[in-house]
Amino acid sequence: MSKSVRGVVARAKGAPVSIETIVVPDPGPGEARVKVQACGVCHTDLHYREGGIGDDYPYLLGHEAAGIVESVGEGVTEVAVGDFVILNWRAVCGDCRACRRGRPQYCFATHNATRKMTLEDGTELSPALGIGAFAELTLVAAGQCTKVDPEADPAAAGLLGCGVMAGLGAAVNTGNVGRGDTVAVIGCGGVGDAAVAGARLAGAARVIAVDLDDRKLEWARRAGATHTVNSTSGDPVEAIRELTGGFGADVVIDAVGRPETYKQAFYARDLAGTVVLVGVPTPDMTLELPLLDVFGRGGALKSSWYGDCLPSRDFPMLIDLYRQGRFDLDAFVSERITLADVEAAFEKMHHGDVLRSVVIL
Ligand SMILES: NC(=O)c1ccc[n+]([C@@H]2O[C@H](COP(=O)([O-])OP(=O)(O)OC[C@H]3O[C@@H](n4cnc5c(N)ncnc54)[C@H](O)[C@@H]3O)[C@@H](O)[C@H]2O)c1
Ligand SMILES: [Zn+2]
Ligand SMILES: [Zn+2]
């Protein structure tokens, strides 16, 4: 039977979000309905509200979530009612050209629920990143539910579902940071700080955090940065070179996604080093670089989608490290709020007052 619950909806481009009654259908074949316990506020939710991602209003926002499986549809074997799960936006298909070549982290046909959640008048909702978890219940493909240790705090665990995984994976998976490497991270929001923590976990010898805001640099130190650079008070490329024997870092991660930060990342890396772009640029941005420098400096210029993660492989492992006290996921939870506070949380994010506000349901 379908159920009516409360959810946070963006009805029109640029308009403040509102709490609406949403109708969540029974799970269809291969689908699961999840009782959401916690959901983080990500920059991407704000992008949806502002029309930066698409025009498929109304959107049901929220996608960094953890909760309990409430019911499952026909043929679901991945999860069962009562399982504690983190929701993911990479339920791999197993059948596309990437999956068939053994690279499921690039799956080009990931699964979402096919049944539609609606407003009371029947208007279909577009769930953010195929999730829509600023709601008491949500409907997803069963493969979007990754079962993890139920002892984990849902507010912290849910953050692995997007930003924290993207940043950590940018360092560990895409950048392939290893023991003894020097790493620089430009932009220390939730994503950048997760990259800092990932570099630290992977055994980096030096982790240099760069931001414009001293508060953010302080938080980056807590995440594991060994050095910090405020780029309002000097050239960050020079500062990173100075901190790396004059050479530059082995891996530089751009967690902002602007032409100027990308250029800093490009020139702040050592010869044969790696640049990882995880911040998301906007369509108006272009990049100009001397092609000779691209050639002459060698190495790899990579982009990272969702930290090249495989939820089934990475979420349970990271929750174990968290539970063992080796990865401080709690540090990313700046405040706990209600569904009614999402609009205010966007404002705080905009002003850099939080790493993550987390809605508790
Ligand atoms: N690739 C992915 O799969 C993926 C997933 C989630 C989020 N993202 C993207 O990652 C980016 C960061 O997300 P977030 O949640 O950490 O955002 P955020 O707004 O919390 O953090 C951005 C940080 O960058 C800093 N900054 C801005 N301009 C700077 C500059 N010129 N130099 C140095 N620092 C600068 C800000 O002070 C802030 O601390 C966003 O673009 C987001 O859309 C990507
Ligand atoms: Zn696939
Ligand atoms: Zn996100």
TrEMBL record:
<dbReference type="InterPro" id="IPR017816">
    <property type="entry name" value="MycoS_dep_FDH"/>
</dbReference>
<dbReference type="InterPro" id="IPR013154">
    <property type="entry name" value="ADH-like_N"/>
</dbReference>
<dbReference type="InterPro" id="IPR011032">
    <property type="entry name" value="GroES-like_sf"/>
</dbReference>
<dbReference type="GO" id="GO:0016491">
    <property type="term" value="F:oxidoreductase activity"/>
</dbReference>
<keyword id="KW-0560">Oxidoreductase</keyword>
<dbReference type="Pfam" id="PF00107">
    <property type="entry name" value="ADH_zinc_N"/>
</dbReference>
<comment type="similarity">
    <text>Belongs to the zinc-containing alcohol dehydrogenase family.</text>
</comment>
<protein>
    <submittedName>
        <fullName>Oxidoreductase</fullName>
    </submittedName>
</protein>
<keyword id="KW-0479">Metal-binding</keyword>
<keyword id="KW-0862">Zinc</keyword>
<dbReference type="InterPro" id="IPR036291">
    <property type="entry name" value="NAD(P)-bd_dom_sf"/>
</dbReference>
<dbReference type="InterPro" id="IPR013149">
    <property type="entry name" value="ADH-like_C"/>
</dbReference>
<dbReference type="InterPro" id="IPR002328">
    <property type="entry name" value="ADH_Zn_CS"/>
</dbReference>
<dbReference type="InterPro" id="IPR020843">
    <property type="entry name" value="ER"/>
</dbReference>
<dbReference type="Pfam" id="PF08240">
    <property type="entry name" value="ADH_N"/>
</dbReference>
<dbReference type="GO" id="GO:0008270">
    <property type="term" value="F:zinc ion binding"/>
</dbReference>
<feature type="domain" description="Enoyl reductase (ER)">
    <location>
        <begin position="17"/>
        <end position="359"/>
    </location>
</feature>
